[in-house]
Amino acid sequence: MKNKIYTIFLLGLSVLLLSTCKNPEIGYETFAITDENVEPEVYGVKVNGSFSFSGNVQEMKMKIATDESLTDATDYSIIIDNQTFSGEIDGLEPNTTYYYCYDIDFGWKDDYLTDINSFTTLKGLPTVKTLETIALYDASFRIKCKVTSDGGSEIMERGIYWCIGNTDDNHPNLGDNKIIHDENGVGEYFCLMDNLEPNTTYSVKAYAKNRIGISLAQEVLHFKTHDNPSDSLMIVTNCNPPSGGTATGGGTFTSGQSCTVTASAATGYTFTNWTEDNEVVSHDANYTFTVDRNRTLMANFTLNTYSITAIADPVAGGTVSGANTYNYGASCTLTATAYTGYTFVNWTKNGTQVSTDASYIFIVTTAEEYVAHFHPKTYTISVSADPSDGGTVTGNGNYTYGQSCTITATANDGFVFSHWEEEDLTVSSNASYTFMVNGNRNLEAKFDQTYPVGAINGRFTINPNGEQVYFSRGNLQYIGSANTPYWKFADKQWSYLGNHGQGSENQQADRDLFGWGTSGWNCGNKFYQPYDTDISSGEFYGPGNNNDLTGQYANSDWGYNAISNGGATSGLWRTLSNSEWNYVFFERNTPSGILFAKANVSGVNGIIIIPDTWNSSYNLSAVNNQGATFVSNVISDSDWTNKLEKNGAVFLPVAGWRFGHSVTEEGSKGYYWTSSHHDTIDNTSFSLSIADGAFSTNQMGRHAGLSVRLVYPIP
């Protein structure tokens, strides 16, 4: 062992003493081991060395233990001679690693412990026993021995020493006579002594040899051969294989005597038969016969074999390997391999878990069936709609591998399902898409809008040429935000602002009753803003009295503005002309035959317009009747939303009309601007007039504030 330095620091007469193996604080004088030699032996260790220290070392001990912490260490005295030390420690175990440090006593309060080091004792001699002598014939004996330990290294030779005479047990080797067994290793073995002298005493002792040396058994066995070999017959029993069991009943017999030999199988073996000179003489474990000669009988045993079966549960979960027929005591390794989408759970036997390792190793002692359990992995299927208001989707959730998943897309009004998309790739064009789950998936249902934002999905023909439009979702409103006023459609078809803000001079007031052509486009007239009011028609839209809200004057139509919830782009919407309103109400040919009906929807009076595409079974009364009353049809907001509007129906509420800053006839009459001027009466234009018991188109002064419902032309 190389030299090591151990240091302790002293300051004056005080000593910092440590209770653990570490150096004291820096700043003290040093104690140092300048040389150390450690020589491990089989059962101990020799140490010697030198140290330097200016003071007095009263005592030195070596603390030794098998654990590195030295918690249960044994103290051994070390001899100090001037500044050298030495010690011989015995009583240790062979081939064992020990940890140690030195305990230095300077004569002060506490001892100082050096750093911890280690050594390993040498491998030892083997141990061997002489068990028994077994008489075979008059001049033959079999000696049974056993190597109980190899001493930590391989057995190179084993056998017996023997000599003639009743030799003392302490005899070292019984002479030079030696019989070497033909196999090495630990365990029982037999040595045959034959051609022995009659009436002679022999002594035998077992031995074993490893790399360290030879060990002799403590036991010396003595036996004596017969005086007259012809007087007795020998029955010898052996086992094949020796580990297969035991055979008893042999020995010395006289001719004509009965003998019963018994074969007893060891665990894992089955008795097969008795043979003599390789010929079967009996299949009974207890074999009885009359002795008439010397005989050597062999009890034959067969090592049991067992069938190990393994199955996968479920079969689709994975594969198993290692199932086979094994000898008793053999090692078996069963291996479970999960298929894609499955994980291995455990091995069970008779319903009881035996291992959670995919590779299960065990010793075979009986036939068994093992089950490898697999569990399908769980994956998340996420579905969403694009755009989010385009429709609804179902099928979100967690699914197991191989499970069937169906995701469904249902388009909202105004949208149509296009396809399912994943990572920018189309995976299905079917709204209901079924697939087998084999991983996490994130799918989007793509919807295409079938009509513009802010429109109702019903189609209305507006002239004999077959041109069609969508109506907006509500009456037009001007929201007078203090900083940024904007245009919007009412949230519900039956909603209107009424007198709110209409009678105020405040330009920012909210409004839904407008003078004709007050879109905010400067047409050269005095009044063109949505908040302009007057009691005279002459200053509203011009010049002249014969300009429709079309052609070069289309900007005066309210659709000139960007409608916030109607596409937010200017120029998308317009007002129907007088002839177009009349065609919608009175001239269309529809499959249902229904054009309009008076109604009260969610407590608001108005008139319903039925689209060309109407296919609802909802029963309306007094249809196409201009003189019907509002209560001819009383409809809840739920029925309106789910049964009428969903199928494209339009509702025009009666919000009264404004004269100057005053609103009148709110809730009893309603007026809606057309885009057409009146060609015979100056400064008037056509409008719809809706009342309880009456409905018509007529002219109104352009200064009057009327409701506006816009349409979106269908290309």
Give a description of the structure.
With 715 residues, the protein is an all-beta fold. It is 3% helix and 46% strand. The protein contains 2 helices and 56 strands. The strands form 15 sheets. Strands 3, 4, 5, 6, 7, 8, 9 and 10 form an 8-stranded antiparallel β-sheet that branches. Strands 13, 14, 16, 17 and 18 form a 5-stranded antiparallel β-sheet that branches. Strands 21-19-26-23-24 form a 5-stranded mixed β-sheet, with no helix packed on it. The longest helix has 10 residues, at 578-587. The protein starts with 9 loop residues before the first strand and ends with a strand. 34% of the residues are buried. The model is unreliable at 1-28 (pLDDT under 50).
SSE layout:
Elements: E1 10-11, E2 14-15, E3 32-40, E4 44-52, E5 59-65, E6 74-81, E7 84-90, E8 97-105, E9 112-113, E10 117-120, E11 127-137, E12 140-149, E13 157-164, E14 177-180, E15 187-193, E16 201-209, E17 214-216, E18 221-224, E19 233-240, E20 245-248, E21 251-253, E22 258-265, E23 269-276, E24 279-282, E25 286-290, E26 295-303, E27 305-313, E28 318-321, E29 324-327, E30 331-338, E31 342-349, E32 352-355, E33 359-363, E34 368-376, E35 378-386, E36 391-394, E37 397-400, E38 404-411, E39 415-422, E40 425-428, E41 432-436, E42 441-449, E43 460-461, E44 468-471, E45 476-479, E46 486-489, H1 578-587, E47 596-601, E48 604-609, E49 634-635, H2 637-644, E50 650-653, E51 657-659, E52 662-664, E53 669-677, E54 684-691, E55 694-701, E56 711-713
Parallel strand pairs: 19-26, 27-34, 35-42, 47-49
Antiparallel strand pairs: 1-2, 3-4, 4-7, 5-6, 5-8, 6-7, 8-9, 8-10, 11-12, 12-15, 13-14, 13-16, 16-17, 16-18, 19-21, 20-22, 22-25, 23-24, 23-26, 27-29, 28-30, 30-33, 31-32, 31-34, 35-37, 36-38, 38-41, 39-40, 39-42, 43-44, 44-56, 45-46, 47-48, 48-50, 51-52, 53-54, 54-55
